[in-house]
What we know:
Blueprint: H1 3-10, H2 14-22, E1 29-30, E2 36-37, H3 41-54, H4 59-65, E3 69-70, E4 75-76, H5 80-118, H6 127-132
Antiparallel strand pairs: 1-2, 3-4
Keywords: DNA-binding, Repressor, Transcription, Transcription regulation
GO molecular function: DNA binding; DNA-binding transcription factor activity
Protein name: MerR family transcriptional regulator
Amino acid sequence: MRIGELSRRTGVNAHQLRYYEAQGLLEADRGTNGYRDYDESAVLRVKQIRHLLAAGLSSEDIAYLLPCATGETPDLLGCPELISAMRSRLRRLDDQMTRLAQSRTALADYISAAERSGRDTYPPFDHTEAVAS
């Protein structure tokens, strides 16, 4: 099938499909006319990629995991390398969440301090205008 049909069947635009191919996540043969030609398994592969992206995995992570993937959701076979890669990704997410929580706390503290010190000095601040600009 050509890229347009794969796009229609998966709901993924052609630009993203070409990106998946460039990242080594999706394979296509080339016809004599130069057009990409995908086999039927590409539909399942694209669905797997979309699910794994939704889980927060990078295309690099997904390239590593796809050989262990079965089914649309996908189910991942428990090979040791796979589990190690997923645990590593989970640790990175935990670290990011910790840093975000720290940033949020610091920002909330700055807001509280600014509100306490500026109540009598400055006119009310419309934060919606500041965020929009």
